[in-house]
Amino acid sequence: MEPTDNATYQRILDAAEWLFNQHGYNGVRLQDIARRVEMRHASLYYYAPEGKEQLYVAVMERSFQRHAEGLTTAIIEAGDDFRDQMVAVAEWFATHPPLELGRIVRSDMPSINPDKAEYLINLSLVSLRMPIVVALRHAMKRELVRVDDPEFAAMGLIGLLQSVHNIPGRFVPSEEARVQAAKASVDMLLLGWLARD
Fold first, then answer.
1. Which residues contact 154 (CB under 8 A, 6 or more apart)?
2. Domain extents in the chain
3. Residue 133: which of 192, 65, 68 has the closest Cα?
4. CA–CA separation, 99 vs 140, rounded Å?
5. What 3-state DSSP class applies to 172?
6. 3-state secondary structure 110-152
7. pLDDT tens digits, residue range 133-166?
8. Which overall architecture, per CATH, does domain 53-191 show?
9. Rounded to two decimals, what is the model's pTM?
């Protein structure tokens, strides 16, 4: 069995993911990850011979894959109604930890190997954007929506939905309130702000 296939490795990834989400790539040391899983620092190299960067890439791959699968499932389970699909996307983002995409792009990516950074950025775009783009294109074919650039629209929606995690707790005191804020964001995009005749 490979070291990456066992439960200890998954615990290491869970700990690393939590730490990277809280502090970013530069704010985490291997010692921090080892301490969180109650393991000796040197023992981590059995699971990640290349060190912290290898763990970061593995964490991000796993996270993006989880989002891709979750978003795709949410859209499929929502049925054929486009609004219901986008509400399902909103609920997914509201009920999962935020990705802090701004920090990832501006701070984490410049700190790792450029080839790995490019790979992760491309993976994030495909994983997060494509399930939404597919739904948008399907709705466009059915003439339910008009969008000039579905890929840009998907990224805009993702940014807006991720931002609900930044709303102060007094305005969204519970996960349900955060879900409602995310759903309201979808309606704001779908209906727009401008008055219509």
1. 128, 129, 130, 132, 133, 136
2. 53-191
3. 68
4. 28
5. coil
6. HHCCHHHHHHHHHHHHHHHHHHHHHHHHHHHHCCCCCCCCHHH
7. 999 999 999 999 999 999 999 999 999 999 999 9
8. Orthogonal Bundle (1.10)
9. 0.89
